[in-house]
Description:
Number of helices: 1
Helix content: under 10%
Amino acid sequence: MNATYLPPGLPAPTAERDGLSAPYWAGLREGRLMVQRCAHCGTWQFGPEWICHQCHAFDPAWVEVAPEGRIFSWERVWHPSHAALKAHGPYLVVLVELLQAGGVRMLGNLLGDPLQAVRIGAPVRGVFEAHGEGDAAYGLLQWQHTQA
Length: 148
């Protein structure tokens, strides 16, 4: 995707200093969605943690999954969460339940008309958005409706 959905002026997302989420952000830069799955018990999880939520084993593995899911919840945001978004509202934020990751859920923007109808359970697919170049490059994952 050449055009970007978000306006300039927002801070670039980065992994924590301890690198916990670095595989997630590296995956987005490459157009891949990475989530954690415990190598011991198979539990899927997101956001990233150093320990499995189920069996408490350390260092869950990072696994690529298809960026496909269903809208679990959503909100139309009218008040900007950052000064760079002041003239860009409203916008839609969705909580997406991933189909291939054991029901893991993640937040993201829903592309398209911010006043569009949104339905719980509607199928969506991820759209990778590249920003910057070189060491300052990062990727974002946006969501868009798909046909059922």
